[in-house]
């Protein structure tokens, strides 16, 4: 009746509960020497294994790669090539909106980043679009120093839009030594995923 009268009420966006495959969580947790985490298209970190949690320990809230890059004071010090990391975040968010231009959570994130970072605003205007592929990144970790890690992204077939990101260091390299040292530093991950249900919340 509302539609016929031309006064259809607006749809109120609700938080989406994103399911994470428990078997995938178990696989990630078994990689004691490999940082691995799960992302959605908005770059929300849905789950991470203990080594990935230790890798991002310096951030106030390791919940979303874009927020971590642009809004967290740790971002510029953590990413050795911060501008490259920032460009990649912006390109991925544009790709997310390419899949769903009405993604309320993605639009709210863009608004939040625009309000909080002039750098994001300038990069957003460039209209670059690309997803994660395979390359190397250098991180400056506050506890173990420089880490150059290759990453590979895998689409999760059971959950379209989710990507598994896996890092590795060149064997016997200084980064490999630093990564092994990082593995001795425990970091709880219960804030990221529910170990009983294998479920996590996107933002």
From TrEMBL:
Top-level taxonomic group: Bacteria
Pfam (any one): MLTR_LBD
InterPro entries associated with the record: MLTR_LBD
Domain MmyB-like transcription regulator ligand binding: 20-182
Record-annotated membrane-spanning stretches: none
Cited PANTHER family: BLL4672 PROTEIN (PTHR35010:SF2), BLL4672 PROTEIN-RELATED (PTHR35010)
Protein known as: MmyB-like transcription regulator ligand binding domain-containing protein
Organism per entry: Arthrobacter gandavensis
Taxonomic lineage: Bacteria, Bacillati, Actinomycetota, Actinomycetes, Micrococcales
